[in-house]
């Protein structure tokens, strides 16, 4: 059940006729892929880069945690001081102002 090449419809053997154009297009595509791969290889991150970044993030998180703890302590001191003065000040005024 073989067909002769001449009896086939043009759509079925189109790819055989235009192989040179297809090969040129594939070569062009291949060159663009090679350029893309070269760019990626030049700019990709290594395991050392990622480890360095993780260490920097950990250091920043530690500094942020320290600053938050300092802020909490300061807020507590101000609130306790305000409540203490609010309770103590009227008693001191009674002692200082006769009457």
Written description of the protein model:
The chain has 99 residues and is mostly helical. The chain has two domains: 1-44; 46-99. Helix content is 84%, strand content 0%. It has helices spanning 10-17, 19-43, 47-96. The longest helix is centred in the C-terminal third of the chain and has 50 residues, at 47-96. The model has no long low-confidence stretch (mean pLDDT 85).
Ordered list of secondary-structure elements with their pairings:
Elements: H1 10-17, H2 19-43, H3 47-96
Transmembrane segments: 75-97
Keywords: Membrane, Transmembrane, Transmembrane helix
Protein name: DUF1640 domain-containing protein
Brief synopsis:
By secondary structure, the protein is mainly α. Helix content is 84%, strand content 0%.
Strand content: under 5%
Main sheet: strands, sense, barrel? none
Q: What is the share of helical residues?
A: over 70%
Question: How many β-strand runs?
Answer: 0
Residue-averaged pLDDT: 85
| Tally of helical segments | 3
């Amino acid at each position: 059940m073989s067909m002769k090449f001449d009896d086939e419809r043009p759509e079925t053997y189109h790819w055989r006729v235009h192989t040179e154009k297809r090969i040129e297009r594939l070569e062009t595509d291949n060159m663009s892929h090679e350029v893309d791969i070269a760019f990626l290889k030049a700019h990709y991150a290594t395991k050392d880069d990622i480890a360095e970044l993780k260490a920097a993030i950990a250091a920043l998180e530690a500094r942020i945690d320290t600053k938050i703890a300092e802020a909490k302590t300061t807020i507590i001191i101000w609130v306790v001081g305000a409540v203490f003065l609010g309770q103590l000040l009227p008693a001191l005024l009674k002692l200082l102002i006769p009457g």
